[in-house]
Design brief:
Chain A has 273 residues and is of the alpha+beta class. Helices cover 45% and strands 12% of the residues of chain A. Chain A is built from eleven helices and seven strands. Chain B is mainly alpha-helical and 301 residues long. Chain B has one domain. The chains are: A alpha+beta (273), B mainly alpha (301).
Amino acid sequence: MGFDTVLMQTWRIREPVMWLFEQITGNRKTFGMNLIGGVRRDLTPELKTKILEVVDTVEKEWLKIIDAISGDTPLMLRLKGVGVLKHDDAVDYCVTGPTARGSGVRIDSRVDHPYAAYKYLSTEKKVQEGCDILARTLVRLEETLESVRLVRKCVKEIPDGPIMADIPSEIPPGREGVKAVEAPRGESIHYVLTGENNRPHRWRVRAPSYMNLASVPVMIRGVQLADVPIAIASYDPCFSCTERLEVVNAKSGNIRIYTRKELNALSRKKRDR
Amino acid sequence: MATTISLAIVNLLLVILVSPFSEGVMRKLKATVHSRKGPPLTQPYLDLLKLLGKEDLKVTGNPLFSLAPVITFASICVAALFTPMGTHPPLEFAGDLIVLVYFLALASVGVMLGGASTGSPYGALGVAREMMLAMMVEIIVLTSLIVGVIHIQSFDLGRISLWYHQAGPTISMIIAGIAFFLALQAQLSKLPFDLPEADQEIMGGPFMEASGPKLALYKWSYFAKQILLASLFLEIFFPWPKTGIVPVDILINVIKIFIILILVGLIDAVNPRIRVDQAIRYFAGIWVVLIFAIAFALIEI
């Protein structure tokens, strides 16, 4: 809705975090840190103090942002009671992450199915009962503070020891693994089926946007056009995560779904042109 | 005659050549609020030059599409000649407040024609919003100016400004001035009232299909409108200080214009866009308050 000031300020706050990422992993965004059995690089003591410093400033600035957002009357005019996704609808459409928690659905796979170190961290579920865009925004704002708390706790309590587990033999074929991980947008589920020669045979990802996108028709039912973009943006869409394609013939209403082979052929045709 | 011509040249120079600079100042201001570095102050001039040098594309055979930017730009330029900028308006012998308001309305109509002529759904939405907003905002602009008219029983803008400068602040003019300032934000298509353009919602609305020289003319008339309306506001509702020496007065007015535009830019930077129904309710409220101003003006306070 053209409120660039908050966006730009949050980007300013984000920048030290990106520098930190670069120092820890060597990259700003695509970290390439996780390996089968562990991570690639260890934290040095200097980095630990640096992380705590950055996290402190982020927390301080973030509290200011929360103050600015919750005290802004025109913003409340636009966000309150708009893009409503009722609790029952949220359950029916299986939405996840902040979209669900903004509608009062108490799910968070970090707490419900603790993985990695989350069982030692006692993560708190941040839930809002408002069911509107404001509630989803507040959930995100509070979750950032929760993340700050988690990072601080992790850095202080991380035990010493090797960063990689020993994997002596090849991974046998035909084994399956499913894991739900709480990403910023919600529950991201990965499924792996191992194959021959120490390779995965099949790997399927269900990103959270795929579930959340389905709830948009409910959110935007009966609202003005001006509210549609913010309603869609309120669940933080990742359209590349929802890469399903169907082609509808407008005249006959026929729906046709392309297979992977056809899509590959199409993109090759485009490239060769 | 010579003074009329030189005043006309000054006014045109202000709205045509100084206005991109004021836009540059506003962009820099917005960048500062965002903690960004921002483009250089001369960027709007470069933008206009680049756009004017581009190929003139036509998305439709409709002659209105080519004509609309010219109508908009020309009517703003003519309106500038009826606006007091530091001293009395150059063409005051030819027309008064009503002519000025007509030319300002013609500029909005130009934008609407251009937007509607392409058949783009985003353009149509932008035009619908512009119309809804213009209906409320132009009434407020006219009503607040009429408060001054009631005081001196004349539609002559130069004389209203002169009278207010000598008579000092009155309650009715202060109320009208505040109302005009609040409407200014919508007249200049600044947040929270930039609904007709609304980049994030309808992608520029009426300007969506305009490119090259056409877009340059739209942009230029939009910059010019900023100077014009800010000057109108200052001359009618805040004519102090005045020295009586014309060039100095013009300079003072330019400085005041920049201060007002910085204020407008700040409001623009700290507000989200509101919905059209909310905007209309807001302006309806202002208009009700303006009726009080008219009542005060009738009993001359």
